[in-house]
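Page 37, continued from 36.
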């Protein structure tokens, strides 16, 4: 997926940068999911959670600040006010920062990761 990338940063490098920024803010269970073969909306999802709405905002802010160090800014930010699920759209990478209840309810990992596994098994058969 073509997109705005800072100073030679690949989508995977950006995803790892965002995951690292989340870890610095003590995010729980940060994961990077490769969705390149499943959708055209992004190459990777970064998914994590924070214990409170304040922490969820701090994690999102940390991700934005980390991206700024690479001359990147999100194209869009959604959910910041309520802070139950903040979505940061970096074009090739979508970062999802949840409260635990929201993360388990929407369960993006189960929605996207099994489809990737099924597709890889079918391609290798």
């Amino acid at each position: 997926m073509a997109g705005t990338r800072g100073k030679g940063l690949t989508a995977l490098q950006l995803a790892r940068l965002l995951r690292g920024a989340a870890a610095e803010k003590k995010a729980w269970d940060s994961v990077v999911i490769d969705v390149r073969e499943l959708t055209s909306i992004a190459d990777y999802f970064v998914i994590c959670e924070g214990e409170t709405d304040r922490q969820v905002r701090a994690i999102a802010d940390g991700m934005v600040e980390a991206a700024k160090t690479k001359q990147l800014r999100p194209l869009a930010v959604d959910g910041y006010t309520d802070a139950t699920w903040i979505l940061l759209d970096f074009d090739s990478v979508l970062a999802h920062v949840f409260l635990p209840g929201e993360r388990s309810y929407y369960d993006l990992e189960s929605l996207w990761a099994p489809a990737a596994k099924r597709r890889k098994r079918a391609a290798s058969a």
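The longest helix spans residues 108-124. Flag for discussion at group meeting. The mean pLDDT is 87.
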